[in-house]
Amino acid sequence: MKFKLAFIGFGVVGQGLAEILEEKDFRKEYDFDYEVVAISDMKLGSIYEPEGLDISKVLDIVENKGDLEEYPAAEKGWDPIETIVKSDANTIIEVTYTDMKTGGPALEHVRTALKEGKHVVSTNKGPVANEAKKLLELAEENGVHYMFEGTVLSGTPAINLALMTLNGCEIKEIKGIVNGTTNYILTKMEEGMEYEEALKKAQELGYAEADPTGDVEGIDAQGKIEILSNTVMDADIELEDVSREGITKLTLSDIEEAKKEGYRWKLVGSTKKTESGVDAKVSPEKLPLDHPLANVMGPTNALTYTTDYLDEVTIIGPGAGKKETGFALLVDLLFINKMEK
Amino acid sequence: MKFKLAFIGFGVVGQGLAEILEEKDFRKEYDFDYEVVAISDMKLGSIYEPEGLDISKVLDIVENKGDLEEYPAAEKGWDPIETIVKSDANTIIEVTYTDMKTGGPALEHVRTALKEGKHVVSTNKGPVANEAKKLLELAEENGVHYMFEGTVLSGTPAINLALMTLNGCEIKEIKGIVNGTTNYILTKMEEGMEYEEALKKAQELGYAEADPTGDVEGIDAQGKIEILSNTVMDADIELEDVSREGITKLTLSDIEEAKKEGYRWKLVGSTKKTESGVDAKVSPEKLPLDHPLANVMGPTNALTYTTDYLDEVTIIGPGAGKKETGFALLVDLLFINKMEK
Which of A299, B22, B83, B340 is the most exposed place for a label (fewest CB within 10 A)? Predict the structure, then answer.
């Protein structure tokens, strides 16, 4: 098939994918036949060009002018739903804003696209956290794919590792470090920094936001554990079903005390199959230094899958970043390309 | 498609897959429609039954009688090539003996199957080490798949991680622990055992063979590095192009000395892209304790992929075992199933 792509949202992650598409000849080297036909972004504006957009020109205009006003296109000003429904795109790249509690407005974009028989690749946590089962069923009913590698550990294979390369295994437990900001802060505290100083450093480097609550209180990790539970572990839980404690109560002296005993504090997220569903939580854990997760430092993430046939399989890699998350969208597109050949 | 499977070879790994197929309802739970129609094994004999074999009965007879003589089947006594050509199997599970230097006789089995337009899944290192490019081209020409996850790190995603879940990334370097026997021996030496004692322990546990040369001299690791170079790094090298040093020169005092300095000896295999191809080697390396590979202990294996978009991604998991390697065949079959839908 020829992919006709529409970006719904064109912020950091969308632009990350667009830059990647410009860097290699994916049409030739990866047998991936595509055009980008539409972009609809709340801030930058909306363009639709059935003949295909010039991505390098789009990136240039966005960088230099701050919006897509100047780009000549067949249609302009379509909102996300219009772009999904009216354009001839057959694949939607959903990278807008999402509310973790309701999944909106991204949820409506994903649902509409799947109902229209369009593939969806997305890094948006909201829809998959809230409605994974329903959306995957909707995709199947409409003969299309819904893929979301980038929702957990950015492009580091986490979802696809479980669903594709561990396919056939039962995954009994998943445990890991799924938030880079807190792991970076804990690493700096391990080096002797106080919490406030480490947080400031994380903010300077762009790892933490001005309001760091989502990271340091474990809410981001909670959402990722919800996603892993509902997609890989076949559960059907809500955000609140993942018990949560962040790192804000950990002091430098807690960390130094653990260090003396040969332990290291980590913010660990986990979900484990039980007779009635899953037992899911996020909380600081004091791990012995020879534990595989204890040596995952800085903004790096890691997940250990406990399976029936392979026992423990651990993946370690980046958890965030423009190119890292943009790549997650690419690998999902390349998977669909293989499956639709 | 409905998979009609023929086992060429039915030793430990083949039986591992057969046992797995009996354990879950893959037809229903994984939408994997299959029958096993043939088995051809040098020691156990050969049976072909176009209606499908009763795998539980096959496993039972093999265990209790030591060969397939008693199993009633439409055809008996076909050699591997006859089984591949004459049976109506559309997918060949190639798990026979292989010579790493020539790839034979497995190479001929794989080549014949692909020429006949039959998919091949295999854990056999010889063919892919020697002829990866040609065999993959042959598969493509004939519209079928040739997959070999189990040749490196058993079922731990190594090949599929690189080719599927890191698809789109350029892999610049691969480095890791690809032999469980030597890693087990080094772990025991780390605990204070002399080399000879650790080797004996490894032999008792079935990690090392009576003649341990292939493992301890790094030849097994050399073959795996050759495979990774020729499949993931797009190189075209011979076994001898991977420089090799085993662990037999390491003494307990080397290990204890490193330990005092905060280092740990590991047998490391690596392959790195260069301007003219790859620089590939297997040799003992003294790693600092905070290096991700330093903490991979016992028979566990690990690989770090250095990529353009994700920087370093590390996978850690088992490197051998009956079910672990049998699973590698299963996951390859399930991939083909997804791609042929």
Answer: B22
For chain B, the structural domain boundaries read 3-155+322-339, 167-318
DSSP string, B149-181: GGGSSTTSSSHHIIIIITBTBPEEEEEEE--HH
Of A165, A292, A318, the CB nearest to B316: A292
- Distance from C-alpha of A253 to C-alpha of A195, rounded to nearest angstrom: 11
A interface residues, B as partner, C-beta within 8 Å: 20, 24, 26, 30, 149, 154-157, 160-161, 164-170, 290, 292, 295, 297, 309-318, 323-324, 326-327, 330-331, 334-335, 338-339, 341
Q: Does B312 contact A313 at a Cβ distance shorter than 8 Å? A: no
**Interchain pair B167, A331: CB under 8 A:** yes
pLDDT in tens, B257-294: 999 999 999 999 999 999 999 999 999 999 998 788 99
Q: What angle do CA A114, A120, A122 make, to 5 degrees?
A: 130
Catalogue the E-assigned strands of chain A: 3-8, 34-41, 45-48, 75-76, 91-94, 119-122, 146-147, 171-177, 243-244, 263-274, 277-288, 300-307, 311-318
Whether A3-155+322-339 shares its CATH topology with A167-318 is answered: no
Q: By a Cβ cutoff of 8 Å, what residues of chain B touch chain A?
A: 20, 24, 26, 30, 149, 154-157, 160-161, 164-170, 290, 292, 295, 297, 309-318, 323-324, 326-327, 330-331, 334-335, 338-339, 341
Strands A263-274 and A171-177: antiparallel
The single residue of A224, A266, A281, A323 carrying the catalytic annotation is A224
Active site residue B224: yes
Per-10-residue mean pLDDT for chain A, 341 residues long? 97 98 97 98 97 98 96 97 98 92 92 98 96 97 98 98 98 98 97 96 94 97 98 95 97 96 97 96 94 92 98 97 97 96 81
**Residues linked to residue B34 through DSSP beta bridges, in sequence order:** B3
Q: Which amino acid is at A157?
A: P
Inter-chain contacts counted by CB atoms under 8 A, chains A and B: 129
Q: What is the pLDDT of residues B108-164, one digit of tens each?
A: 999 999 999 999 999 999 999 999 999 999 999 999 999 999 999 999 999 999 999
Q: How far, in Å, CA of B219 to CA of B245, rounded?
A: 9
| pLDDT score at B140 | 97
What are residue A75's DSSP bridge partners?
Answer: A48
Type of residue found at B130: N
For CA atoms B121, B234, A310, A224, the dihedral sign is negative
Bridge-based pairing of strands B45-48 and B34-41 is antiparallel
Region at B218 (left for phi over 0; alpha for psi -120 to 50; beta for the rest): left
CATH of A3-155+322-339, one of 3.40.50.720, 3.40.1350.10, 1.10.3720.10, 3.40.50.300: 3.40.50.720
Q: Which fold has domain A167-318?
A: Dihydrodipicolinate Reductase; domain 2 (3.30.360)
> How far apart are the CA of A329 and the nearest CA of chain B, in angstroms?
10
